[in-house]
Specification:
about 300 residues, 11 helices, about 20% strand
Length: about 300
Amino acid sequence: MARPDLNLLFALDALLEEGSVMGAARRMNLSPPAMSRTLSRIRDTLDDPVFVQVGRKLLPTPRAYALREQVRAAVEQATQVLSSNTEIDLLSLERSFNVRATDEFVNVHLGHLLEAMVKEMPKAMLRLSPEEDDMDDDALRSGRIDLFISASRKLAPDIHVQPLFTTHFVGVAREHHPIFDEDISLERFVRWDHINVSRRGKGRSNLDALLQASGLQRNVALVVSNPYTALFALHDSDLLLPLPKHLASSAKAAGLAIRVFDLPVPMETAMLVQAWHMRLQTDPAHQWLRTTIHRLCTEDDAQTAKRSKL
């Protein structure tokens, strides 16, 4: 049995309310001929004239009159189902968010995000999901993760993307590293062994391609999955660590005995974004999470710019 066209339900409601094809056409944003064709389809579906012409008005048949309240109730219920429910009590909402986030965000903004959640969505839980070998698009689409925060990359059309902040790479070494005895040239930069941070265990990065273009090559002696292990590995070694400036500055502010220096080879500025699947676009709780994250990142960028002018 073929499913009925539910658009006819809305059209029938408009006809019953307006009592004319012209009025129903205006209400449905249709032309009068299109509304007349819709009325014909309603008659065929119900196997009833539905309306009879009396002068310039359409009067409902006994069948249509009997259906009037049922049609109105069905339309109201359907409208409620399809309408976005923007009224939500965040204070009592129990919700878990799976977020795959880059270390730059976790290091700089996670504490502030948790503070905001305690105040506005205290029963929610944030679960930081590790980076895996799956495609980020598929993880968002399947619901394995609800939000993805990382460097900008090409994602599928059904994934919404919003810029958060920019960062660039700097060099990090222990406080009394001999590299600081002289100007840091490319040749001196590759003289010492390096640490590479990669959650997937990669020994090369964009930096290696830039060095190769200059006819040089660095030796990566250590690959770690997170920057915190890398930072502590600097203390008792002469290893060098390329790291996003946000992370390096935070580590230095935390009291680690390190020094930060400009890389002798310019690397492109990285744009960090948050991304989510379109099915969560109108979800009120997810909207709060995205809006709060964007606000925190915007405020941090503003404060950083202010400090740089002082």
